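Lecture 7 notes: from sequence to structure.
We start with the chain below.
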Amino acid sequence: MTVTNPGANAAAEGDRSRVRDGGRTRELVLEGAMAEFTAKGFAGARIDAVAERAGVNVRSIYQHFESKAALFDAVLGDSVRHRHEHLVEAMAGLLDGSGDPATLFPLFRGVLADNPGWVRLMAWKELSEDLDADVDDFFASDDRRRLYRDEIALLDAGHDRGHLPDGLDSDLLVLALTALAAFPWFVRPLTMLLTGQRPESPEFLARYDAFLHALGRAITGSTGGSAPVTTTDDPVDPRAHRRLRLLGRALDRAGLAGAYGHCSIRLDAHRFLVTPPHPLRVLTTQPGVVVALDGPLPDRVGPEVVLDRELYRRRPDVGTVCTLDAAPTGALPAAGGPAVLHGGDESPADPAGAAALAAALGARAVLVRPGHATVVAAADPAAALALAEEPGGAYGVDPARAQRLWEYRTFGDPEAEPIV
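Predicted structure tokens for the same chain:
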């Protein structure tokens, strides 16, 4: 058993600090601010809480944003711009004659309402505008007007090519599509009363996108095939995506994830599902990323997922892998317990390093690396959460206790599974 070199730890911390400088710091702050504002609204959000979520200090935030109001405007402004730029690009592909115009309807939902908290914040911002204000005084008016004009122009071109029926004024169609996209989240209680489902749940999203596509076909007269935005060529049970998000947010609630943690769950003998490369705290309804046990990694995963893949390859008993941002202070494994202490500096992003770390873990469940990430390999998400909370425990995970802890850590989560 070896102990990590303190000098190497300091160098690693210096490298991380440099990564966080400049544009990366701004990106982390915006991600943390989005999570804080969507959780607590503008009035309840605190700058120190944003700093904690982002993994930066308060001074760093004020170096980029002069006030909470400026930060709020930047969060919404960046999000509006990115979403509508993506929407314009996707609309151009649909209305050039090669796509099905009916998919415009679920497309707007998928792009503009992928984050229910953001929908509520945007609605609050719109409703708080002065009723007597001029259009030039509205929030992000110049950027928004430019993007809306691009969307209207694309619909006008679609009319000219005969891809859209007469009588659908382009500006009013953009307004209607935007309303359809956001309304279930704006009136969340009504949605739940009518459907019995949370609007952010994968089950509701699948139903609603299929409904929007059918509505689009009825309105546009399209005879194209039914292919809502939520479907893929390689479908994954929506419950797997939800379980993965629940685990990620539970790890964050327990204070274990940090800004760089991630988790994954096995789908079958050939694939696993991993959280997207964002802090686990900001996960809303984003799907996980499917990774094959063989072949190159997808673009939308972090390089450290190489270790997850190595563990799934070597250990058929492993159904869940969690990588925590840093080893808990003083969390040393007990003799004969489920954890092993390892002081090497191997990188989980390097195939050779991942193989060495997997070998160091062996048949145990927790690899404790002082000064580096702790890795948990367990049969299921509940067991992984329990082991992450107590990596130095003298005993393995009792399934009943792990389930109790799972219910405790996921209580209040918008996607929490009902207790039966």
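Points to note: The chain has a mean pLDDT of 82. The chain is about 55% helix and 5% strand.
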